[in-house]
Amino acid sequence: MGAPSTNPVIVQSDRSILLETDGPQFEDARDAIAAFAELIKSPEHIHTYRISPLSLWNAAAAGMKAEEIIGNLAKFSKYEVPDNILVEIREYVSRYGRLKLYKLEDGRLVIESEDEMLISELLNNNQVKPFVTGQLGPNKMVIAPGDRGNVKSVLIKIGFPVEDLAGYVSGAPLEFALRETALCGKPFGLRKYQLEAVAAFWMRGSNHGGSGVVALPCGAGKTCVGMGAIHAMQTQALVLTTNTIALRQWKSELLDKTTLTEDQIGEYSGDSKEIRPITLATYQVLTYRKAKDSPFIHFDLFDKGNWGLIVYDEVHLLPAPVFRATASLQARRRIGLTATLVREDAREDDVFSLIGPKKYDVPWKVLEKQGWIAQAVCHEIRVPLPPEERYRYAISDKRMKFRIASTNPRKQDVCAQLIEKHRDDNVLIIGQYLDQLNEIAEKFQAPIITGRTGTRERERLYQAFREGKEKLLIVSKVANFAIDLPDANVAIQVSGTFGSRQEEAQRLGRILRPKSDESIAHFYSMVSRDTCDQDYSVKRQLFLTEQGYRYDIIMSDQL
User: Fold this and answer.
1) pLDDT value of residue 252
2) CATH class of the domain comprising 369-558
3) Which residues contact 72 (CB under 8 A, 6 or more apart)?
4) pLDDT tens digits, 215-225
5) pTM of structure
6) What does CATH list as the number for 192-362?
7) Angle at CA 424, nearest 5°, toward 421 and 339?
8) For residue range 395-425, what is the model confidence (pLDDT) as tens digits?
9) DSSP classification of residue 386
10) Beta strands 376-383 and 521-528, pairing class
């Protein structure tokens, strides 16, 4: 006899897991499955997960055993779990930690395994050979210290992730405290889930902790987790951010919520090159070079300070050259902060091997239910193309089709209706094309922020929006990431980037800060009906539907 028919889970032999949302066991089953499987989609009634090698290795790195995973599947499964799934779970979980990386007293690194045949296989693997400098007995191979990251990156790609126990440098000490009352006058303390995230990363300073990723929704306080990690270590740190605005928000948060002083925090950006105990840098300045084949002239920043911790903000956006630099930084503790481990370049395995495995995450809807992020409703509004644009669209190539559909002039009429509907709210209009945004800004006599807007002017406009002096703000892609606008409660997306799931999540994140009046946030995505714009919007929405958000679909003439 199988499990009781009221159980909500169906495990299928293709590694997919179906979870019914209607029964009383749904939430317990969801939390159990999320620990070892990737969420693929989550519409109203049935959520789909997939078991993958990487999802199982993340679970193993977090301390889960194969029998615990199998036990959870058996507990919630409607039918018997297919035999091939049981075999694969045991097989892949056993691979994590089969290879262990240690540091010898003389500074050399050793990869060790109880499986001598596995070591023999790796010694004869052409991808591994370049990093091996010797052998100590039948079950140990010696790796040069500088290749710690490179060999981990290669080994995960051939299916054997390394458990890195080689330890870390301590970094220069830096004593400071977290304030109980922020300088702004508000009480401050890390929330329960933020404390859990720091503890999961730090692991009391043991070699089992010290490198990994914390995944929390936009608006859930990832910066506070970063601060908490630095505070737990009491060490000098390098914080890498997406842009100068995000960098200055980090500085503002550190000054407001910790006892760190202005002269202890340095800015390393296009505007300034300060190196202080806490140094905040942008990915742009790190990846700057004079020509395409020139060296990256600021990579020496990684060695200019005695960093005990490197914080990678928005780690899913980490540029490829920074991965290469990170491969040589494996002796320093590293924490990645992100709302999503989805990378458009599919380099999730490099995040695992070079930054570290996922150490902690909380589903978006869980934090919404607890009141830590705002409740949000998503709407897709389908707008027809005017007849003359429809003809242009029909005869254009693929790229021009997307531009014509994205900049549909009838979207402005819909904007007018939505702005009128939300005239008492704080509204962001977000888009991809500058000419479209400039027209909207002129039509509604609203300020606009683009990549050409100077940092000082951007900060002035953001501050005016925060203070309620501006109720409508037009923003380009520059506002996708790490912009703190807590009172924004309506976002209108007039155009997006093809099928970018990251972007859709980040744009919704702009309005997810909890509202003082507990109002619901609204996210509107406008797409041109029966065009590639509509097709791409389906892809963009995937990440949000994975998180449990639903899109109402409205035809523009029904508004």
Assistant:
1) 93
2) alpha beta
3) 32, 33, 35, 36
4) 888 778 899 99
5) 0.79
6) 3.40.50.300
7) 90
8) 999 889 989 999 999 999 999 999 999 988 8
9) P
10) parallel
